[in-house]
Amino acid sequence: MTKVRVRFAPSPTGPLHIGGVRTALYNYLFARKNNGTFILRIEDTDQLRYVPGAEAYIIESLRWFGLLPDEGPEFGGDFGPYRQSERKAIYRQYAEKLVEQGHAYYAFDTPDELDTMREQNSTFKYDNVSRQNLKNSLTLAHDVVETLLSKNQHVAIRLKMPENGTISFDDEIRGHVTFDSNELDDKVILKGDGMPTYHLANIVDDHLMEITHVIRGEEWLSSTAHHVYMYQCMGWNPPSFSHLPLILKPTGQGKLSKRDGAKFGFPVFPLSWDSDHEEDNFTGFREDGFLPDAILNFLVLLGWSPGNDQELFTISEMCVAFGLDKIVKSGARFDIDKARWFNQHYIIHSDNLKLAYLIQNKAIEEGYHVSVEYLSEVCRLMKERVHKTDEIISNARFFFAPPQIYDDATIIKKYKSENKEHLLAIGQNLINNQGDTTEAIIKGYISDLGLKLGDYMPLLRIAVSGSMQGPDLMESITVIGKEECGNRILKAVSYFETLCAV
Q1: Radius of gyration (Cα) for the chain, nearest Å?
Q2: What is the spatial distance between Cα 387 and Cα 479, in angstroms, rounded to a whole number?
Q3: Which stretches within 209-351 are classed as H helix?
Q4: Does residue 483 sit in the same domain as residue 414?
Q5: Are residues 321 and 231 in the same domain?
Q6: How far apart are CA 283 and CA 266, in angstroms?
Q7: Does 222 lie in the same domain as 284?
Q8: What is the distance, to the nearest Å, from the Cα of residue 427 to the centroid of all Cα atoms in its chain?
Q9: What gap in Å lies between CA 399 and CA 393, rounded to an integer?
Q10: Which residues, 6+ apart, have CB-to-CB distance to 291 below 8 Å?
Q11: Does residue 194 sit in the same domain as residue 327?
Q12: Nearest to 210 by CA among 241, 170, 237
C-alpha cells in the first residue's frame, strides 16, 4: 500500500491567512491519521510578489500551532529542495518535454501586447481560439520561431489545451468534476524569466515528491483541470484531490479576507505582522490572547464535522476522528464569538504557571514587575472570568496596584456613616494580624459584632479592587497581601466619606 504523503504549499507573499492554517491543519491531521508524511513546500515562483520574512513567518506560525512538518525548509527530508526557487533548473525540462510532445508551445507575446488586448477586449483570454491569431510557435514560421528563441526575448511556454474535449477527475469532497476544454485558457507554465508558474511547478513537485493526496482550498478547483491534463500528458498518475470549502465572513457573505480583521475587529492571522505600510500591519491571534490549541479546535470544525455533537477535541483526538469524507462542500462562517468560547475553555483548563509565563511580558510592558509565581496565583483566580489571556492583566489591575477609580454609584448606595469605624477596624486588623486567615479576620469581626455581611462585603470589595467585579474577595486579599489590602481599605474610607458628604 502506498504511503500517504501530503503537502502544505503556501506562497511567501505576506502573512499566513487563517484559511491557510486550516489547510495546513487538515493536511497534518490526514497525514497523522494515516501514519503518513506531512510536508511543507514553499511555492515562491512568483518573485514579484515575494515578501521578505514571509517564509519565516509561515514556519513560526506552524511551530506555534505545533503543526510540525516531517519534511521541508528547516526540517530536512529526502525530496528537497523544498523551496521552488531552488528547484528552478528542474522545471524547464518538463516544459520543453510538453512542447516536444505537442502539448505546449512557445508564446512570444509581450506583457504589454497582452495588456493592450485585454484593454480592447475585457473578455480576452489566451485559448484555443485566440492563439491562432497571436505570436506563438503554432502560428509563426519555423525559422522565425528559431530566431526568436535564439534571442530569448519574452519567451513563455503555454499549455496547449485540447479542443472540443472534456477533462474529468474525482474530488474527494465534491465528487465527479468535469470541465469543457473549450472553456479553459492556455495557462503559462514557464515564464519568460525561466521561472515556472504555479501550474507547472505544482504538478512536477507533487510527482517528484510522491504526493498522494492534494488537500487545498476551493479557489484552486478551476485550475485542477489544467493540472489533470498535464498529468495525462506526462503519463503520470495524479494524486487524489480534495478542495476545501471557503471560510466566509462573519456575515456569511463572501470569502474572509485579510482586511476583514480590521473591519470586524478580530485577527485573521496567527501571529502579528509588521509592515512598512501601516495599513498592512495586523495583530495576530497569539498577540491578541488566544491559545493555539483553541484556534485549532475552532478551525477544525470550520468545514469538517465529526458526525456527532462533540465540539472539544485535543489534537490527538482530531487525528483519530478526522476524515476527508466528513468535510462539507458549503462555506463555513467565521464566528469569532465561537472562537472566544473555545479560547475561554482552553484558558480555564490551562496550567496556571503556563498561563503566567504567557502573560509575563504583558505584565512587564504594563509596568508590573512581579514574580511568575504571583502571576500564577492571579491566573488561578482570573482565568474563569476572561475569554483571552491578555484580559487577565487588563481585568485584574488591582492585583498589581491600588485602584485609582472607584464604583461611585455603589458607594453612594451602600455607604453609611456608621460603616466608617468598622471598615477602619477591619483594615487595621488586616495590617496587624498576619497570622489568621483573611476570612477569619474579616468574617470573624463582622460576626462577633453582629453586623451584616451584605453591609460590608461590597464596600470592602470596592476598597480593594475599585469595583464590584472580580474573583473571590477573600482569596484576592490573600494573594495581594493582607497589609496592602488593609492600607487600601483605610485609604478608601476617606474617599467614601468625602464622596458621601457631598
Answers
A1: 32
A2: 22
A3: 221-234, 260-264, 292-300, 315-321, 336-348
A4: yes
A5: no
A6: 8
A7: no
A8: 49
A9: 9
A10: 343, 346, 347, 350, 389
A11: no
A12: 237
Domain identity same for 48 and 68: yes
- CATH classification at residue 171: 3.90.800.10
Cell 464569538, located at residue:
337
Q: Which residues are catalytic?
A: 258
In angstroms, what CA-CA distances link 178 with 244, 253, 331? 17, 27, 21
Integer angstrom CA distances of residue 335 from 303, 304, 380: 13, 15, 28
Claim to verify: residue 483 and residue 430 sit in the same structural domain: yes
Q: Report residue 203 CA to chain centroid gap.
A: 27
Average pLDDT in the 483-499 region?
A: 96
CB count within 10 Å of CB 171 equals 17
CATH code, domain carrying 441: 1.10.10.350
Those residues with Cβ within 8 angstroms of residue 499's Cβ, 6 or more apart along the chain or in another chain: 406, 408, 411, 412, 415
Q: How far apart are CA 298 and CA 25, in angstroms?
A: 11
Domain contains 342:
no
Tell me the C-alpha distance between 12 and 57, whole Å. Answer: 9
Q: Tell me the residue type at 295.
A: I
pLDDT the model gives residue 265? 87
Q: Are 107 and 188 in contact (CB under 8 A)?
A: yes
Work out the burial of residue 100: count CB atoms within 10 Å of its CB; fewer than 13 is exposed, 13-18 middle, 19 or more buried. Answer: exposed
Q: At what angle do helices 352-365 and 372-382 cross, to 10 degrees?
A: 110
Inform me whether the pLDDT recorded for 1 exceeds 70.
no
Alpha helical stretches, state H, 235-267: 260-264
Q: How do residues 300-350 score in pLDDT, each as one tens digit? A: 999 999 989 999 999 999 999 999 999 999 999 999 999 999 999 999 999
Closest CA to 303 of 337, 344, 331: 331
Around Cβ 74, how many Cβ atoms within 10 Å?
Answer: 11
Q: What letter does residue 441 receive in the DSSP assignment? A: H
Within a domain: 78: no
Last residue of one domain, picked from the residues 192, 225, 244: 244
pTM metric for this prediction: 0.93
Q: Are residues 220 and 96 in the same domain?
A: yes
Q: Are residues 132 and 165 in the same domain?
A: yes
**8 A C-beta contact, residue 391 and residue 398:** no
Instruction: Indicate whether 116 belongs to any domain.
Output: yes
Q: Which of 18-22, 42-46, 57-61, 343-347 is predicted least confidently?
A: 42-46
Does position 45 have pLDDT exceeding 70, yes or no? yes
Q: What is the mean pLDDT of residues 77-91?
A: 95
The answer to whether residue 446 is domain-embedded is yes
Type and span of the H or E element at 8: strand 5-8
Give the end-to-end CA distance of the chain in Å, rounded to a whole number: 85
As a residue count, the chain comes to 502
Number of structural domains (the chain) is 4
CB-based contact 10:43 (threshold 8 Å): yes
Going by their DSSP bridges, the two strands 37-40 and 240-244 should be labelled as unpaired
